[in-house]
Amino acid sequence: MIKVHSAGDLTHLQRKVNQYNLLKTIGKGFNCKVLLIQDSITRKYFAAKIFKANRHNQNQLPLEREVKILKKIKHENIVRLHEVLYVPQKNQYYMIMEWGNCGSLQDIINSGINLSEMTISSIFKQIVHGLSYLHGQGFVHQDIKPSNVLIFSNGVAKIGDFGIGHSFQSADTVVGTPAYQAPEIFDDRLDEFGNFPYIDPAKEDVWSLGVTLYQVVFGKLPFLGNTVYEIVRNIGQNQLDIPQTVSPQLHDLIRGMLIPDPKKRLTLKEISENPFFKMSPDKFTPPINPVDPPKPNALLPISQMNASICDDSYQFAFKNPITTSLSSENVLESRSIS
């Protein structure tokens, strides 16, 4: 049922909803880009993930998946969804989300900063908490990597980006993410009973988290290769090299998370109980200073775009995304964004 607003309601909305200033691009992905935006009324900053609609639904599927997950989960270590907008003039969807004002783990790696084991334990303890909650709700992430672990100035780490469907284009070319994916995903050999290898999606997340942990600690990936096949071969040959510069507890944790056999790989519960996390603080001091956002330029013209805002159910009708953004049963409100 469509919610109908009175003229007074719409006037009230118009006073309040012309609020977002688009400041700058802060990221680009395979099927979207991310902008830093500011709510001109509350002065709060958000990240806006922008998807272009298309007739083949290629971009809507990860958007729909991410929205459906984020609307169901509320956890301090998972990025929160603020709202979703559809802009018909540009045929785009805007996911308005929390913004990690100290960047991501990838930014820390790129900066060459060496984190103390205490800081590492705090960050990964929080991510384990978030993943455990996510799995408990019946979801897996499937794309844990440094750029998807966001850092906030209050010493909190949060998991972001739940929109991944397929993270590689072919088995012949590495496209970033496969370096973090569990080896069983790429194993197409049949066992003696004609079955494909054992796959546990939760253990896939553990592997990806282990690769991420290794990279944060040592500044490099644990398994290298120019193709997916080379990476999987190196994993199969057990070529995991863990330098002796870390504590025995961290050494054993990394080893347990990166066991090629998913049945022998550590579970999240076992990880959370690992001695490495026993003395870790609940929060940490971010190693990177908060980003100073650019201020909106009042001299620049602001283009107004009418947009539809999703109601709390966040249900999309993707059968004809060019002409509709929500099913007819959902509430629509007139909004505009700058």
UniProtKB/TrEMBL annotation:
Pfam families hit by this protein: Pkinase (PF00069)
Tagged with keyword ATP-binding: yes
Gene3D superfamilies: Transferase(Phosphotransferase) domain 1
TM region positions: none
Domain Protein kinase: 20-277
MF terms in GO: ATP binding; protein serine/threonine kinase activity
GO cellular component: cytoplasm
The organism's place on the tree of life at top rank: Eukaryota
Record's keyword terms, sorted: ATP-binding, Kinase, Nucleotide-binding, Transferase
An annotated GO BP: intracellular signal transduction
SMART domains, sorted: S_TKc
PANTHER family the UniProt entry points to: MAP/MICROTUBULE AFFINITY-REGULATING KINASE, SERINE THREONINE PROTEIN KINASE
Name of the protein: CAMK family protein kinase
Organism: Trichomonas vaginalis (strain ATCC PRA-98 / G3)
